[in-house]
UniProtKB/TrEMBL annotation:
The lineage of its organism: Bacteria, Pseudomonadati, Pseudomonadota, Betaproteobacteria, Burkholderiales. PANTHER family: COLICIN I RECEPTOR-RELATED (PTHR30069:SF53), TONB-DEPENDENT OUTER MEMBRANE RECEPTOR (PTHR30069). Gene3D superfamilies: TonB-dependent receptor, beta-barrel domain, TonB-dependent receptor, plug domain. InterPro entries: Beta-barrel_TonB, Beta-barrel_TonB_sf, Plug_dom, Plug_dom_sf, TonB-dep_rcpt-like. This is Outer membrane protein. It comes from Noviherbaspirillum aridicola.
Length: 618
């Protein structure tokens, strides 16, 4: 899927066929004017989607607005190649799996600033507020040559809003099941070289019990949450080709969970990303970007097992140089330093490490031929030097058809818990390594759209919990984290869409064989089949649609003893434009009240609704 960088959501007030005459966008019914679709994350530079060789999708602002949802995880659950795991309702601990890769094997960025926990690994998805997000890009496959450690399954980048033009106000308010309430407002614009955007939101819900009654730690209380968030961007064009700016996203999440039958277990989390950038066109063919980013991932828990705290701070300084050669080729030189610091209630885990990296990438275009090659070296103060590379080739048969193939290597750095947690971590643990090959075909004639991608990602030195520990058993009475396993993530990812009059049809289907080669078992919480079906209708002021999400069975444990059944969910949504600026929206999830599990003994949302009113652009 693709997006156009300056699109803004507007309720459809004319027959969809009129909008289709102007331009087709897979994720939106209409847009202000035809624009070339662009993808940023794949190569750290804006590119026409037709020239991006990596498999990717974009969740547009329009799609988020139509969803009527309040959770980023719920929006990701509806996307191709993505599965989610959640320990209860919104606000509870969540994971996102790309093509079967673990949550720790995905890099997550907010406006180019890396976020995540260095103790547990991966992003704290439950604490990333959907209300602050303009769009999301998902790039599949290894991208360690662009982003270093942990980009094994892919990269997800979250973009906050940008401002331009006259000042524009926007706001929305809504309520739903379990006394869920949401209020958000923002202003954006630009003039005289300045561009600005600022947004704030508050969301809270009583929710439902995270655990089911059969769980040993079940507590019948409701495990609700309270989220307060803000985001902003400010930039100034110093002169033509020279821009200075800053971005931020901040969210504080107070949530409840179950770990004891009578104790009111709760956590206080913070996810924040702050960035400053300077963009310079030094020569007509030389563009330089310097960015400094700082992110926080903190969690303080008060539970029946005691009080704990885990705080991660990441600082990243990068200098990226893009040189345009031969009119269409791009040579990239990237230098980057990242520092991670952890403070924890477990004194042994309180550590820091640094990483210096240099990367070279070349993107070539010769008529119908597209190619890209990249190499990167990461020198880490903890586990030494690690080099990754990638090579891609694509061929455009005509305007609609393109085929591509690629291969690349990646690695995941051990978390601080896997290295130092008392009775579990092993300081000599080394990075996991991945080697991926894939091939795909893509078709888009403006009316019909389809893509098919085959991939095979072989992983070695997997860090797993095992009783085969490298030192005396007395040090690890319950086992340890150790590099002992190998795995294969192999599958086919299919996607299709069509625009037929006032209707839009879409569908995805993923076949996955996620297996642990050491044990022969299927990797935990991965389904062999996962997909979606969707239909949207837009005419006059009304836009409405339905979607089906379905998944096969999964196992909750690595030993494949506890099976989670497959499920199918039906969701409905609608938007009605009252005026040019005002609209009503609503969503009914899990219409048939399906009882299913994403993690053993944890509840999921039954039939639920959310309705609201919106003013201006989302």
């Amino acid at each position: 899927m693709t997006f156009s960088v300056s699109r803004r959501f507007r309720p459809v007030r004319a027959p969809l066929s009129a909008a289709l005459a102007a331009v087709f966008s897979f994720n939106a019914f209409a847009q202000d004017k035809p624009l070339e679709p662009v993808v940023v994350t794949a190569n750290r530079v804006p590119q026409l989607a037709t020239e991006v060789l990596n498999d990717n999708l974009v969740i547009s602002s329009e799609e988020i607005a139509r969803s009527g949802g309040t959770s980023l995880v719920d929006v990701l659950q509806r996307q191709r190649g993505l599965e989610i795991v959640r320990n209860g309702g919104p606000g509870t601990q969540s994971s996102v799996l790309i093509r079967g890769a673990d949550n720790r094997q995905t890099v997550v960025l907010v406006d180019g600033v890396r976020i995540g926990s260095a103790t547990s690994g991966g992003a704290s998805w439950n604490a990333i507020p959907l209300s602050q997000i303009d769009r999301v890009e998902v790039v599949y496959g290894p991208l360690s040559t662009m982003y270093g450690a942990d980009a094994v399954g892919g990269v997800i980048q979250i973009f906050t809003r940008q401002g331009e033009g006259p000042p524009a106000l926007s706001a929305s308010a809504g309520f739903g099941s379990w006394d869920t309430r949401n209020v958000e407002a923002g202003i954006s614009g630009g003039a005289g070289g300045w561009r600005y955007a600022l947004r704030a939101a508050h969301e809270e819900s009583d929710s439902f019990s995270a655990l089911k009654p059969r769980a040993s730690s079940y507590n019948p209380d409701r495990d609700g949450y309270d989220s307060k968030s803000a985001s902003g961007r400010l930039s100034y064009e110093l002169s033509a080709g020279h821009e200075l700016g800053a971005t931020f996203l901040h969210n504080r999440l107070e949530s409840r969970f179950d770990s004891g039958r009578t104790y009111d277990d709760r956590s206080d989390s913070k996810v924040a990303a702050y960035g400053m950038f300077l963009k310079n066109r030094i020569l007509p063919n030389w563009h330089s970007t310097v960015q400094f980013g700082r992110s926080y991932d903190t969690s303080d828990s008060d539970a029946v097992f005691g009080r704990t705290s885990y705080d991660t701070v990441q600082d990243t300084l990068s200098w990226q140089n893009n040189f345009t050669l031969f009119g269409t080729d791009v040579l990239q030189v990237i230098a980057e330093r990242r520092e991670e610091e952890v403070e924890s209630s477990e004194a042994a885990v309180s550590r820091d490490r640094s990483n210096n990296a240099i990367a070279l990438a070349y993107q070539l275009r010769r008529g119908a031929h597209l190619a890209a090659a990249s190499v990167r070296n990461d020198d880490n103060s903890q586990f030494g030097s690690h080099t990754t590379g990638s090579l891609s080739y694509g061929y455009k048969f005509n305007r609609a058809w393109r085929a591509s193939a690629s291969m690349g290597t990646s690695f995941r750095a051990p978390t601080f818990n896997e290295l130092y947690f008392p009775g579990y971590g092993v300081p000599t643990n080394q990075p996991e390594k991945g080697r991926n090959t894939e091939a795909g075909v893509h078709y888009d004639d403006g009316k019909y759209r389809l893509n098919a991608t085959y991939f095979r990602n072989r992983l070695s030195d997997l860090l797993v919990s095992t009783r085969t520990c490298p030192v005396t058993p007395a040090s690890f009475p319950f086992g340890c984290a150790y590099n002992v396993n190998r795995a294969v993530l192999e599958g086919v990812s299919l996607g299709a869409g069509a625009a037929l009059g006032n209707f839009r049809l879409s569908g995805t289907l993923d076949f996955l064989d996620p297996r642990d080669e050491t044990t022969g078992n299927r990797l935990a919480r991965r389904a062999r089949k996962h997909g979606t079906l969707g239909i949207d209708y837009g005419a006059g002021p009304l836009t409405t649609g339905a979607e089906v999400i379905f998944s096969g069975d999964r196992y909750d444990d690595a030993a494949n003893r506890n099976q989670l059944g497959g499920y199918g969910l039906l969701n409905l949504h609608a938007t009605y434009a009252l005026t040019k600026e005002w609209s009503l929206f609503g969503r009914w999830n899990n219409v048939f009240d399906k009882d299913y599990e994403l993690a053993r003994n944890y509840n999921t949302a039954g039939s639920s609704f959310f309705v609201g009113v919106r003013y201006g652009a989302r």
